Amino acid sequence: MHFWDKYGNIAQLLFVKPDHALLKAMVRFWDPTYRCFTFNEVDMISTIEEYSTLFHYDFRDPLRIY
């Protein structure tokens, strides 16, 4: 219960099936120097809202560590 209180339902991510094409694209466009995605010299960084949509998880609790 302590883990659940601290992290919520994040363990459900273990059951998400990965999209291999998406992972290949992420690896291709990831820039480790800047720690963001780069498309045609434009840096793109995901927002909390985008992660919330991708993972189907509500990240609005300010007291949880994500």
Automatic annotation (TrEMBL):
Listed PANTHER family: AMINOTRANSFERASE-LIKE PLANT MOBILE DOMAIN-CONTAINING PROTEIN, PROTEIN, PUTATIVE-RELATED
InterPro entries: DUF7745 (IPR056647)
Protein name: DUF7745 domain-containing protein
Pfam families: DUF7745
Source species taxonomy: Eukaryota, Viridiplantae, Streptophyta, Embryophyta, Tracheophyta
Superkingdom classification of source: Eukaryota
Domain DUF7745 residue range list: 2-61
